[in-house]
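G., before I forget:
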Amino acid sequence: MLRFTATRLVQLVVICFLISVFAFLLVHLLPGDPTLAILGPNDTPAARAVLLHQLGLNKGLLAQYGTWIVNIFHGNLGASFLTKQTVTNALSVAVPIDLELIVVSQVLALLVAIPMALIAALRPNRAFDRVATTSTFAMLSLPTFVAGPLLVLVFAVTLKWVPATGFNRLSQGLGPNLKSVILPSVALAIGSITVYYRLLRADLIATLQEDFVTMARSKGLSTRYILLRHVMRPSSFSLLAGAGISIGTLFTGAFVVEVLFQLPGIGFQLVQAIYGRDYLVVQGMALVAAVAFVVVNFGVDYLLTVLDPRVRRA
Amino acid sequence: MADSADRYDRRAFLTRGATTAAAVGLAGVGLPSLLAACGSGTTAPPHASSTPGIGIGTPKRGGTVTIGLNSEIDGFLPSASHFDNSGLTYANTIFDTLTVVGADGSAKPYLAQSVVPNTDMTVWTITLRPGVTFHDGSPLNADVLVANMQALQTSALTGQALRGVVDTVAKTGDLSVAVTCAEPIVAFPHYLATQVGYVIALAQLESQNSTKPIGTGPFSLVEWVPNDHLAVTRNHNYWRSGLPYLDGLTYRPISEDQSRENSLRSGTIDLMVTRDPDAIRDLRDNADYQLVLNPNVGQGDMDFVILNTSVAPTSDIVVRQALAHAINVDELVKLFGAGIAKPNLSLFPPGSPYRPADNGYPTYDLAKAKQLVAQAAPNHGGSIKISLATITDPRLLNEVQAIASMWGLAGIQTTVSEIEQVTFIDNLVTGQFQAYTDEMFGATDPDLNYVWLSPTTANGPIALNFARNKDDALETALQTGRTTSDQAVRAKAYQQVDKRLAQDLPYLWASLATWCSIGSNVVQNFNNLTLPDGSKALGFSNGVLDPTPVWRKD
């Protein structure tokens, strides 16, 4: 186990380094630079040269990368060329939003998907299974940019139960906070429900046909006990892996929902920064998102070893 | 996602109420709609028994209002930040301008007690109001004003714009400053009502802090979280006694038009600014909301296609004439204007003294367009091929595709593309385009658009006259309008400007921008700004609000 953990940590460091290089290089490959965004029509060669010097962008790429990395180790991710807000500040706004969106949406998705999959697996190809499968397909075909506005129309505009846009922080009260995230979380959960349901259902059906389940039934154990105590655990590996990828991608993949509901999460701010050639913000946000993805999947791998001793022994 | 998920579009380019703001920088060019029109000349439908935006009864003190704006800004430093309509609204909340525009369109002293010219209008003496303090307690005086103006002059953002306007600034008394202009500038007071007229505290100016504004305005900063909200609280020491009424305000930038409308309808926000004809159509007959359209004062923002007159084939006047004749603006408006927009084939709105009775702008005539294409094609390799682009916005893309179809009927081959905002601006400024959709020219005085139209700014690798239209007669007319105080002569001069533009065709006009502010009935008085002497000022114009007189009914 220790060796497993150590190996993964080394891999994590290497991956983070590679991500930092790609994040840095890719944004610098974009045409244009922040001077145009800052100076606009006054982007004369003279003004541009002065500004490039002020921003440190007149140095070579290697020097700029070196400066950026050294600053990161000092806890300084830099500041926006445009708003002058530090990247750390921007992340302190964005990360809680994305974390809460991810937690609420995935909890919702699992709360719906798991019971559905359990019932469907017990009675495959029967009425419930057919209805569940069809409706999850329908959910999968409903893109977020359609689901979001529909939810807003019904629950915000018509019923006025929740706000249409914006994020209320926890400091403003749990009720207002939950109200502000419920609609975007549901919009995000719709796609995840389908994936989790199908993964779990398939694994459950396969596991229910194993000999040990037959043995357990012959011993007189109840179906419920068998499902929850014996079948659920070995059937959850795919679900866990799928959840890991899903959660990781949501750090930036929730962009559409963030725009629709005006939530300044990582994805939203990242795209704004790309359009503005706000290099340090792009680099910082991309690095954090990528590291989060890697860490989440690292955690998933670790959980798999806990769930499945065979992985641990391998 | 209208108005772009590419929020960067809001960092636009051309300011509202334009001053040469190249300085005033980047204003909402966003170009959301090629069509506009709402505004000028139309009146808002009646709601209940009140005039929309004008409060009924005695103002009530207290409470807060949440306002949804169409964009976010990049800071609160007039010399370095880009103030589009949202930026100017924020600035009106925390700062004051030296002058404001009255309901009659003239610039009136506001933070300044007086703005007086010498006989030939080359020296303007600004006298400040006594006893005014900034939010940090420091006094407003001549030293502060001089420092502000010098910062604007030396700034890379605003300096170029002021170069043709302000020569020197000198203190002449504790509260008075003399500004010497490079030439007679009749419209100088109007400049002081724009971005270059805001006065910030010395502490903010010296620190060049763009995130913590310190002004003299009705509200002071509580918290600014970019892309999330701006929260402000009442300035208890505001120099206008009794104002503001509200305890505080929260602004939420909501770039997506539909999201902003939904936010208003769901009660998430109380008031919003929009230029979406669909939202106006949806809400104008709803008695739960008050709708204030753009006033018929000065020039509204125009939506148009800009042609680069320095590159082929758009350098060919015959081609430009063909393009103009081929666009059926009435049809375009009908398709995309939601029944709100109205065509406007002039730089100036209907009723403007600067608009000639007939400016000679080419009307829709497909047969004529085809004839002109046939005439010009041999000079361009046998066919006319145009590249037409817009920023990444689904609605704009539909509109340019419609235009491309219209041009196609005339025999013009058009390739349509979407361009990211930063590149779009770059191409406009450096002249690397043939035809782009654009939006600008909103101004309370036509001289504020001098820098965008003058041939003197059409040269070099970076040109503020993006169309690069060089017309000596146009320059003569612009100069006359700039330097003469005779209103009749000025009117004639700008009528000549309009005629020259209709002849040169660097811009293919479409319609006026559909700026509108829409508030729920609990928000009162959001279009009733008054001056210290009680006379009326412009409370809402070209997407810019002033929240000073707003109060809540509940």
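The mean pLDDT of chain B is 89. Chain B touches chain A through 54 residues (CB under 8 Å).

More on Monday.
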